[in-house]
Amino acid sequence: MHDAAPARLIARRPAAALRGEVAIPGDKSISHRALMFGALAVGETRITGLLTGEDVLRTAAAMRALGAEVVADPDGTWRVAGRGVGGLTEPEDVLDMGNSGTAARLLCGILATHPLFAVMTGDASLRRRPMRRVIEPLSATGARFATREGGRLPLAVEGARDALPLDYVVPVPSAQVKSAVLLAGLNAQGTTRVEEREATRDHSENMLRHFGASVSVELAGAGRIITLHGQPELRAADVTVPGDPSSAAFPLVAALLVPGSALRLKGVGLNPLRTGLFTTLLEMGADMSVEDHRIEGGEPVGDLLVRHGPLRGVEVPPERAPSMIDEYPILAVAAACASGTTRMRGLKELRVKESDRLAATAALLQVNGVRVEIEGDDMIVHGTGAPPAGGGLVATHMDHRIAMAALVLGLVTAQPVTADEAGFIDTSFPGFVALMNGLGADLAPA
Ligand code: S3P
To answer: Is it true that the peptide bond before 137 is cis, omega within 30 degrees of 0?
Structure first.
């Protein structure tokens, strides 16, 4: 385990460039799913490279509370002894999903089609986030949900006994909603069908197949139709978790911005439904390339080579949002240091992340002297080609990605940048401070 990030952190311009090579911690989305599918499979699933961030540890605890055996070996391998589809048992206590929307929403899918009673809660950030987007479709299985006003946590669920399969068109681009429906479909009789109008990350579909479910994916315009045959026997399957491209984004942008930097980020997941940031940075003129492109555990992986260089503002189209939904705060930081204006379009979903990320990102930049506007669901960042003034105290709003984006900005601004609550970084990127400082950054308790 890593030391927890101190509550308040300050980032200063480092004395020298960022240099070196480093492995990126495991993918958060894939880690949650590996534990969940492992718990629903028959036999022992071995997971290597699992992210040990707090969000994923919440999922591990929840799977244990539901009767699966989840063990971390000293060598870093995790083993899950599953209960089989429909085999989870009633938890004795409240399931606390901490800061993690993915854990909470995917678990709702699992619970909906297990005939048991469960109560779920989360931290102050998660208790503000909308759960109706999963509860509404999942209720059609026969499950009964009761929530706080506005469909917020805590919630109680009584899972369906003879669950009905769902046929659902996801109204917002959300891999969490899609995945919740698919997870519910595992223990429903018959065929579950879920349609998304824009393709979102497909880790659930890939992993269902990997664990032996019969799942088909049909392209439909810009979206997809996924069909799953219910009540398969999932068989334990080993999972190798790639490095999280959403975490790689922070040292990556830091290297682009800090003069003279050159980094190799090893073993980064390159699933095309996750790489919108890389596409955008290349359009901005970033000096980056992929080496040692390979397939690991069914997912494309490679080493990212990145060097400092000038960036220019670009227009980021709304249809790219699902493939880089978590990367807008750090892209906004890159845009603030680029020459010219960057317009990021179609960011509505950013308002319901760990914080209202649209507002929090704009505030992060403003407090550090960057000109930024929000117009409807678009964010417009005006870069001057020179480092922003900095000197701001950034309100992170319990949001790990706002904290990390602020600290990367502070590596290039004239004055240091402070993040008020950096401890939340541990939800997705344990060891962030040590990793960044090991590359030459200057992050310190404030
Ligand atoms: C995730 C889906 C995305 C993303 C989140 C992880 C997942 O959320 O923001 O960090 O693992 O399915 P939405 O489904 O709300 O877009």
So the answer is: no
Q: Model confidence over 77-133: pLDDT tens digits?
A: 999 999 999 999 999 999 999 999 999 999 999 999 999 999 999 999 999 999 999
C-alpha–C-alpha distance, residues 345 and 217, integer Å: 28
The alpha helices in 164-308, defined as continuous H runs, are 175-186, 203-210, 245-257, 276-283
C-beta of residue 113 within 8 angstroms of C-beta of residue 159 = yes
Distant-in-sequence, close-in-space partners of 57: CB < 8 Å, separation ≥ 6: none
Tell me the best of 110, 128, 208, 325 to mutate to test the pocket of ligand 1, counting ligand atoms within 8 Å of each CB and taking the most: 325
DSSP letter assigned to residue 397: T
Index of the ligand 1 atom closest to the CA of residue 172: 16
Residues 18/439, Cβ–Cβ less than 8 Å: yes
Distance between CA atoms of residues 227 and 404, nearest Å: 38
Confidence bin at 297 (pLDDT 50/70/90): confident
Distance set, CA 343 to CA 147, 365, 387 (Å)? 37, 14, 19
pLDDT band at 276 (very low <50, low <70, confident <90, very high): very high
Distance 429 CA to ligand 1 centre (A): 16
| Element of type H or E holding 229 | strand 223-229
Q: What percent of the chain has pLDDT over 90?
A: 98
Range of the domain at 50: 28-240
Q: Which of 240, 258, 275 is the last residue of a domain?
A: 240
- Ligand 1: which residue has its CA nearest to atom 13? 174
Residue 3 pLDDT more than 60? no
- Provide the CB-side half-sphere exposure for 226 (13 A, CA): 35
**Ligand 1 centroid – CA 356 distance (Å):** 14
Q: What CATH number does residue 36 fall under?
A: 3.65.10.10
